[in-house]
Amino acid sequence: MKMPAASLPFPGLRVRLRLSHLAESFMLVFFAVVMGLPVLFLLWSSLNVAAPGKDAVYSLANWIRGFSDPGTLSALWMSFLLSVVRLIPAMILSVMVAWLIARTDMPGGNTLEFLCWFAYFIPDFPLVLAWILLLDPSFGFLNTLAGVLPFVEGPIFNPYSFWGIVWVHTSTNGIWFKVMLLTPVFRRLGASLEEAARVAGASNLTTLRRITLPVLAPMVLAVAALSLIRGLESFNTELLLGLPAGIYVYATRIYDYTRQEPPAFGEATALGSVFLLVLVVLSYFYWRYLRGKRFIVVTGQAYSTMRVKLGKWRYWALGGCLLYFAVMMILPLSFLLIGSFMRRYGFFNIASPFTAAHWQNLLMDPIFLSSLKNSLIIATATALAGIVLYSTVGYLVASRKSRGAELLDLFCWLPWVVPGILMSLGLLWLFLATPLRSVLYGSVWGIALAMTIKDSPVSTQAFKAAFLQLGPDLEEAARVTGASWGYTYRRILLPLVAPIAATVGLLNFGSALTSISTPVLLYSAQSRPLSILLMEYSFTGELERAAALGLLITLIISAMVLAGRRLGLKLTGS
Amino acid sequence: MKTEGREQKAESRKQKAENSKQKLTRSLLPAAYCILLTVAPAWAQSRDWEKEWNETLAAAKREGKVVVAGSPDPVMRNEIIPKFMSRFGVPVEFIAGRSSRIVARVRTERSAGIYSIDIYLSGPDTTANTLYGEKLVDPLKPLLILPEVVDPAKWKTGKPWFVDPEESYVLRPFRSVANLLFINPDHVKPEEMRSSKDLLNPKWKGKISTEDPTTTGAGANLASRFLNQLGEEFLKKLYIEQKPVSTRERRQFTDWLARGTQPICLNCREDDVRPLQKEGFKILEIFELADVAGAVNGSPWLLTLANKAPHPGAARLFANWMMSREGLEIYAKGYGSATLRTDVDESFLNPGNIPRPGANYFDDTDWKWVVKGRKETRSRVWKILKSR
Amino acid sequence: MAQAVIEFVEVTKRFGPALAVDRMSFAVAPGEFFTLLGPSGCGKTTTLRLVAGLEEPDEGEILLNGIPIASPKRGIFVPPDKRRMGMVFQSYAIWPHLTVFENVAFPLRVRREPAAAVKERVLGALDLVGLQGLAERGATELSGGQQQRVALARALAYTPAVLLLDEPLSNLDAKLREQMRFELRSLQRRLNLSVLYVTHDQGEAMAMSDRIAVVHRGRPEQVGVAAELYETPASSFVGDFLGRTVMLRGTVKKSAQGSWIDLRNAGGRISLANNRPAQFAEGEEVRILSRPEDIDLLPGGEVGPNQIKAKVEMVAYLGDHLEYSVSAGGRSFVLAAGKKARYPVGAGIRLAFDPARITVLPL
User: Fold this and answer.
1) Cis geometry, peptide bond prior to residue B300 (ω within 30 degrees of 0)
2) Please, which residues have CB within 8 angstroms of residue C307's CB and are 6 or more apart in sequence?
3) Whose C-alpha in A534, C23, C38, C78 is 20 to 30 A from the C-alpha of C98?
4) Which fold, C6-241?
5) Which CATH number is associated with domain C245-362?
6) Number of Cβ pairs closer than 8 Å across A and C?
7) Using a CB-CB distance cutoff of 8 angstroms, which residues of chain B are in contact with residue A543?
8) What does the alpha-carbon distance between residue B103 and residue B82 come to, in Å, rounded to a whole number?
9) How confident is the prediction for chain A on average, in pLDDT?
10) In-domain check, residue A103
């Protein structure tokens, strides 16, 4: 703080400042422990080249081996190319869709938003297979359809290609996640800024481009950065579609090292450190772009829910959205749904191709019910912990100018730049090394903590952007009103960011249900979640049962999203 | 303390084995132990093993469960676990995951002094190089007591086959002929696939699928075998010039095989293909080519006993039962693998999977091959394939 | 009257079941400062937004220079960016990511004016509102009053057909508010702007406007120049809203001598000579409204014509004058009086009304 606390004239003030300072220190220590320590552990282990159980020998051999592999650099380049190429159209589209949903009178916006949530949590593996069924050059449904046209010769679509990967990515996780994060932010923007631009002579699109987007830059950029990093990390689609075409990506290489026998976590950590570098570069640009700019947007008076009137265009906009959703989501999803009822996913020409046996087998599986229970406990705990933890972190990061807050901001990115399985390994080590291990190790609580940590980038960024847009004078506001810091936070700020809180809670809930790589080293037979069951099914080729389970998980999340939105709307009082 | 522990670990394997043997002999009725391993009068054997068996059973019940780690496994989940439970009233907790993940987990747990696993069911690489190589396992041989398990007459190998150098740790109950490749006869006639040269027929350019040979797994293993038996030229021609389509996803190449888009599949798996055959797909296994000898392997797993197992009684019970006719038969059926037991019903197996007596097979699970030969060959394969 | 710049013809706007604007009709002449005055929630801001094109009317017609810009029955709706309006929002809606210059230049740039012209006009507009030298400031680094001027400069940078002002002064402190009132009015005169002004402050409205429409429940209750509204309010709502009123009840009496209102309770009568006696029937109950400054205080005694009896309840000494709280006819009200005659608390006095300056309304 600028002023030493002791010189402040009011004794009460000192206490309040100390509380927020205390919160910051606590969070710093907490995240340093749960995020920093596992990463340090990984880096340290990557330098230890001795065989397990032997005396440690330190050298850079793992790093040299990882980076001297001729495939590494070309894979890194391919990863960047793929990520950037699919990021740009996806960002444009998701901004458009979020704007249409939140800021215009386009009908059906809420339904579309819900569909995004739904789509985001459909497991991507069966969805990629659905696209293969649709696009494969020799048997793809769409190619067969197109073949009927007179001027088409040979297959026109090929998923096993660069553009095939881009396309399928756009479907599996292209805009859903971004729309989910952007829509609540768009919704909270003061309408008068846009209206002023409209009256000043700007068309709707110009207003969006020159006013709305720049004003929302903190969140839009954060979403872009999150997506870029997620894009670099993804490898499922690339494995299924890229490998047959000889396209290797960086994440695949890391994945390869982790699944070698014996696993080469040292090399994997070495390669993973590139993500750390990317993070530092991205956050530097983010910081530079936002430096000196203020984003006071949501004020009491400017807050308005007036929608932009699109006139007759709103039906065209809706039509466009529906078309996009139909092609990108409904089409593969219906294949997935059908697939879960097929004797063999995608084979229509066998005798009696349809069966309900996979669903029956799923529901009859003796460990299904206990896994369901575990999953629900983990997901609920993760959602609640995520809201409490990251709203505090987001507030501190947004409102405090201290070094500590900057460091905290950076810490919160770590779980995403460290590949999932490595983070999981680091956390396992951490859990075992703490006195809390009897509580955390192998229990649902340990998995819930890991999932809470895993989701920190998106949760922190969402809260941070929301608090930034509420105005930078939060600390002062708290003082002026004479309310305690905790009271202001709880009674004034939290309700204002309730839609973001609902979003974060639901996101955490959903990813806790679907994540595989984080719990895989942490679960025990008593805490096995549904996602591990899903992993077992797909690992052993029981794809149809995996599809059924995937759909079921998606349904559970959808129900939660519906309930959560209702609650979130009640909290905002709108 | 730590260094002490390391020093201890650094002790020679033999000494360690002897130590544990001593411990066991002290604790586990030395007389019975000797009798079990020597040929003894039947009456004495039966009386002693029953006593010990009952003690084991009682201990297992006291311990409450047995923790088994292995690959995700429908046979384990759907059949073994319920069967074992109904037979002994002891639940099985199955920790499933890719073996590299299990290894990572176990190593970290152990470094923190936690021992959570009783039994490993794992592939040869993990078993030989990690579990055995890093001394995470205890001798299992002395713990086998069930007469039908220790009875030499019940085993094709004349005894339970411990494949590790000490013949005491790693138990291999399967020896089954592995498929060399699969073809879809609608697209590839069986007579078009007689020798290794047929694989290089330009007609099959882009029509062959393989599991990615540039990463550890079945794809690299087969490539290593080709390099070993047919040389570098063949390897280059097959894996580079023939432009095989590679993937990591077994479901993908199995589907390609069934649809005929890539009608020659180098790494399809028996247990994936069988359901397809049941659905009426015409898929042919090819076990050997004129110039490529057939191979046997120990899939689906090798069995080892974790050291410092938290439920030693239950682990012993499980290992004994697993090696019994009942236990192995379930796996033989579920996976279509030939066991080494003489009394397991093999009528439901594909005759091609059962090794012909006297025939000369390449053994893909051979200890030396797994520990040394394959690793070296594999790195040669990678060098050749990546230099393209 | 010349062709109206803005004309509302029976315009209705609903939000769900609620009527925000109810068959509103009025017209703004060129160069006129026209104010919509009313309490919050009366529909005045919605009216302004209808002009700007931020809301679409449900019924009726809005004309700009005689040309319909919104007419549901004819299917016409000109979007806001095509209406050439200048608008100052209550919150100013200064774009936080732009500098002062960029904020003001925005309307010119979206119209693709050449850069040189943009610069000239932006600096001109900033000059006009007294913000010389602040062009490169970040917009959010300004004080409230400066932000308000930026918003005004932005609205004036191009030549708007009508300048729409939505309570632009409500966020300023009292002193600045007075100053801006004056500046706004003189600016409007100088540039001969047509202004549609929305406020809830009657002082502001009367000080600046050429004409005022007092809006109540979505309808203009009375439209006219300030004096007209003040002196002869068409309803007690208008009377009350524009200032303090004294209201009494009475009964209309007619006889050969003329018409008067009998104020039984206050023991007096007020002649109705100049107050359209024909409108009221014999025996009708009515209300009398008078501005307190039109009432004279007289010492107690016999009540004469246009006088009633009253009693002093409280006296406040305010330096230059005295303020009496008096009760008459069962009602209390506050009247100001000079210091020449002083009445103690409890004294009986007479109140003299000016029959020419009262308003009689039906009950």
Assistant:
1) yes
2) C268, C298, C350, C351, C352, C353
3) C78
4) Rossmann fold (3.40.50)
5) 2.40.50.140
6) 96
7) 251
8) 26
9) 79
10) yes
CB C201 within 8 A of CB C105: no
Residues of A in contact with C93 (CB under 8 A): 190, 192-193, 195-196, 302
- Structure confidence at residue A10 as a pLDDT band (50, 70, 90): very low
For residue A78, what are its two tokens?
Answer: 């391919």
Q: What is the pLDDT of residues A121-141, one digit of tens each?
A: 887 777 888 888 888 887 788
pLDDT digits (tens, 9 = 90+) for C49-97: 899 888 889 999 999 999 999 999 998 888 888 888 889 988 788 887 8
For B70, the token pair is 């292995």
Model pLDDT, residue A278: 84
Choice among A63-67, A372-376, A491-495, C181-185 with the minimum mean pLDDT: A491-495
Q: Looking at the complex, does the CB of residue A299 fall below 8 Å from at least one CB of chain C? A: yes
What's the rounded mean pLDDT across residues B221-244?
91
A111 with A198, same domain?
A: yes
Q: Pick the residue of C13, C110, C198 with the most A CBs within 10 A to test the interface with A by mutation.
A: C110
Residues A214 and A151 in one domain: yes
Domain B181-293+369-386 coded CATH 1.20.1560.10: no
Instruction: Look at residue A538 in the predicted model and tell me its pLDDT.
Output: 78
Contact B317, B88 (CB under 8 A): yes
β-bridge pairing C33-37 and C211-216: parallel
Whether the pLDDT of residue C141 is over 70: the answer is: yes
The CATH number of B2-174+299-355 is which of 3.20.20.70, 3.40.190.10, 3.40.47.10, 3.40.50.2300?
A: 3.40.190.10
- Cα separation of A23 and C137, whole Å? 35
pLDDT in tens, B251-261: 888 989 998 88
Closest-CA distance, A427 to chain B, in angstroms, reads 10
The pLDDT score that the predictor gives to residue A9 is 44
How far are the Cα atoms of A148, A154, C350 from residue A151, in angstroms, in the given order? 9, 10, 103
Longest pairwise C-alpha distance within chain C: 80
Which positions in chain B touch A239 (Cβ < 8 Å)?
Answer: 247-249
> Shortest Cα distance from A382 to chain B (angstroms)?
23
Q: Which of C252, C352, C240 is nearest to C293 (CA)?
A: C352
Q: What is the DSSP letter of B224?
A: H
Contacts of A294 in chain C (CB under 8 A): 96, 138, 140-141
Check for a shared fold between B2-174+299-355 and B181-293+369-386: yes
Of the pLDDT bands very low, low, confident and very high (cuts 50, 70, 90), residue B239 is very high
Give the chain A residue nearest B216 (alpha carbons): A260
Instruction: List CB contacts (< 8 A) between A299 and chain C.
Output: 91
pTM assigned to the model: 0.75
Q: Tell me: do A362 and A388 sit in the same domain.
A: yes
